[in-house]
Write a structure and sequence with these properties.
By secondary structure, the chain is of the alpha/beta class. The chain has three domains: 128 residues, Chitobiase/beta-hexosaminidase domain 2-like (Chitobiase, domain 2, 2-Layer Sandwich), CATH 3.30.379; 298 residues, Alpha-Beta Barrel (TIM Barrel), CATH 3.20.20; 201 residues, N-acetyl-b-d-glucoasminidase (Four Helix Bundle (Hemerythrin (Met), subunit A), Up-down Bundle). It is built from 21 helices and 16 strands. Helix 11 runs parallel beside helix 12, helix 15 packs across helix 17 and helix 19 runs antiparallel to helix 20.
Length: 689
């Protein structure tokens, strides 16, 4: 009797421990039921017949990769399906990618079921997409390593809440990702069951007949085809995301094409010119031949220039009619190629009735990047009034900051997803913009995952615990360090945001533009004094994040070193941004208190310019080291295009502090040793670039 009691208690303890250590599953499946017991990964054996389709073979190959990562050994090969301990059943072949017909919401293409017992794993799916997603779930379910690696006994039934779940990556404004980095992104997004990758391009794809466009600043057609094929293997449709009206300065700034603009070397095409549509016909023929996706996003956002010229210069222009005329032309052309067209709706803000006039079959895409329900509804309501099917598009707020504004991003994604779910959106696109060029896209991966996970499960993960769970899944060997670093970087940005960025709307808004400003200007000296505590807190948190990331680098999986190093460089950039403002104030205070208040030259020049420990030298040392680290991190993520534009900032910055140090030394040399200055530092030396 006592033995049975002990056995019962032991069983309860084992069950309790298993329950406590159950893995976090992102995205959360629709139905999960755990049993008792475990299935040892070492007992897994898979039979792959020679006749297996490539998509099925690839899915099982990825499972082999995940098993090898955990155990150090490959999957066992079974001699037949009867001896296999993993079985799979797929109802229909093909259909690896999202389809236009899926918009009706009745498709079972991505559904899967897992029945995992102590002896066997059974997967059933409608298509190989479901099989691939089941394997992504098995990857997260796997616990332990080596001989101890095992899966818990569990039954899972799953399907997405949203049909279309995409990430829009900006390949127009900032650094251009290397081919390997794009593939890393696609692998990463596949973990969260993303099924669309929107390739935002203005003129960064080389096209036949346009040799000067994209030359050493874009991608070849061969590279695009490689990206498309890589995405398809992972059930991600690579969709062309163009701008066929506005945002074409990279084209129109060239003299050869300048006459196609509605403004002088402007941003927007002039639809009144036949040559414009002749060019677009050529482009559309090439883009549709290059991208097999049934979808195409044509942009049509922010065509402010045409409206400004119509309002201020040429009242004969009807900017609303031109917008509609051009969209109708593009839609008609693309219909010939069997493409389903998407377009942004933000011009509804300028033309309140535009949704009523939208060409038929164009799917409106509502974008709003503020964490504000009122702003979201301002664009959503006109679409709902016309009963149009739509997609909704939030963004990672990384375009104005060294590190994305975390809460701003989480809340924007949350609100857009809730609004989309409430009003039965067709899908969800999370934007990643690179307008300020300087920040690394890798800092946005955490938030890309957050949006992708929410889109599958129909609700956002709990943001308070998200970074911790994400770190445990993605960086298991250094999860605690990464969790702390994510939180400290986010909080450092909060404090820095209180100090900078209030007057930079449209540049874009954020801390980044001002982070390189002259910190000795009266405005900034006053601003630093007013926000002294916030600057110091941002600096302290970014230093703390650096420590955590350095620790992680020493202990991480080598495959994660590049990502962690990019985060480390971002943390150092935040620290440097705060230091240059704090040091400017400290330098002025040190000089002014000595010279003006005490009337005493008490080693102040020594404190400022001592060659290895002076305050001015501190900035040169850190800036120089950062330039080298930044360049290395850039090259691990981006192509060379635009690198020199950013490195030039470091060069100018170094010269700023070096010139100022020389001015101070020259002043000291030209005056007697006990000379006392009668002017404040900032007025006497007039620090400037």
């Amino acid at each position: 009797m006592r033995f049975l009691l002990y056995l019962g208690v032991a069983s309860l303890l084992v069950t309790s421990v298993l329950a406590q250590t159950r893995p976090v599953l992102f995205p959360e499946p629709q139905s999960v039921h755990y049993g008792t017991g475990r299935f040892s990964v070492s007992n897994l054996a898979v039979f792959l017949p020679v006749s297996a389709p490539k998509d099925v073979s690839f899915a099982l190959t990825t499972l082999n990769q995940y098993v090898r990562e955990r155990t150090g050994k490959p999957l066992k090969k079974a001699s037949s399906s009867a001896t296999a301990t993993l079985t799979w059943v797929i109802a229909e072949p093909g259909r690896e990618l999202p389809e236009v017909a899926d918009r009706e919401g009745a498709s079972r293409r991505e559904q899967y079921r897992i029945r995992l017992t102590a002896r066997k794993i059974e997967i059933t799916a409608q298509t190989s997409t479901g099989l691939f997603y089941a394997i992504q779930t098995l990857r997260q379910l796997m616990q332990g390593s080596g001989e101890e690696a095992a899966w818990p006994v569990v039954s899972i039934d799953d399907a997405p809440k949203l049909t279309y779940r995409g990430i829009m990556m900006d390949f127009a404004h900032g650094g251009l990702l290397t081919l390997d980095e794009i593939k890393r992104q696609i692998d990463f997004l596949a973990r969260w069951k993303t099924n669309q990758y929107y390739f935002y391009n203005e003129v960064s794809i080389e096209l036949d007949g346009f040799p000067t466009l994209g030359y050493k600043s874009g991608y070849t057609k061969k590279e695009i085809r490689e990206i498309i094929a890589y995405g398809k293997q992972r059930h991600i449709d690579v969709i062309p995301f163009l701008n066929l009206y506005g945002h074409l300065h990279e084209l129109l700034r060239k003299e050869h094409y300048a006459d196609l603009a509605i403004g002088a070397y402007g941003h927007e095409l002039d639809p009144r010119q036949p040559a414009v549509n002749a060019l677009l016909k050529n482009w559309l023929r090439q883009y549709t031949a290059l991208f097999p996706s049934p979808f195409i996003h044509v942009g049509f956002d922010e065509t402010w220039e045409t409206k400004r010229i119509a309002d201020d210069k040429d009242h004969a222009i009807n900017s609303e009619n031109l917008w509609l005329q051009q969209l109708d032309f593009v839609q008609t052309e693309l219909r010939q190629y069997g493409k389903t067209v998407m377009a942004w709706t933000d011009m509804n803000n300028y033309y309140p009735d535009i949704m009523k006039k939208l060409p038929p079959d164009v799917i409106p895409v509502i974008w709003e990047y503020k964490p504000d329900t009122v702003e979201i509804n301002r664009y959503l309501n006109p679409v709902l009034s016309e009963k149009k099917p739509f997609l909704i598009q939030p963004a990672v707020s990384g375009w104005g900051h060294i590190y994305p504004d975390a809460d701003y991003t989480y809340t924007n994604i949350d609100l857009c997803l809730r609004a989309g779910m409430r009003h039965k959106t067709l899908g969800f696109i999370n934007s990643v913009w690179t307008d300020p060029v300087e920040p690394f896209v890798r800092a946005s991966w955490l938030f890309m995952a957050y949006g992708s996970i929410g889109a599958w499960q129909g609700k956002s993960p709990a943001k308070q615990a998200f970074a911790r769970s994400y770190a445990a899944i993605v960086y298991p060997s250094v999860a605690a360090s990464l969790d702390s670093a994510f939180n400290d970087l986010a909080q450092a940005n909060v404090y820095l945001d209180r100090c900078l960025g209030r007057n930079t709307n449209g540049m874009p808004r954020g801390t980044l533009v001002e982070s390189w400003a002259n910190p000795f200007l009266p405005y900034y000296l006053k601003n630093t004094q007013e926000h002294l505590s916030d600057f110091k807190k941002a600096r302290k948190l970014s230093e703390k994040a650096q420590g955590e990331l350095i620790t992680a680098l020493r202990n991480c999986d080598p495959a994660d070193a590049g990502m962690i190093n990019s985060l480390l460089v971002s943390a150092r950039l935040i620290a440097y941004s705060t230091t240059r403002f704090l040091w400017a104030k400290t330098i002025c205070d040190r000089w002014n208190q000595s010279m003006l208040d005490k009337k005493k030259n008490d080693f102040v020049v020594y404190d400022l310019t001592y060659p290895c420990h002076g305050l001015l030298v501190d900035l040169m040392d850190e800036n120089g080291a950062l330039k080298s680290e930044y360049e290395q991190a850039w090259k691990s993520e981006y192509l060379p295009y635009r690198l020199n534009t950013i490195l030039g900032r470091f060069d100018v910055e170094h010269a700023f502090w070096q010139k100022l140090a020389q001015k101070v030394n020259d002043y000291r040399i030209q005056n007697p040793p006990q000379h006392v200055a009668t002017q404040p530092f900032e007025e006497l030396f007039k620090p400037d670039f």
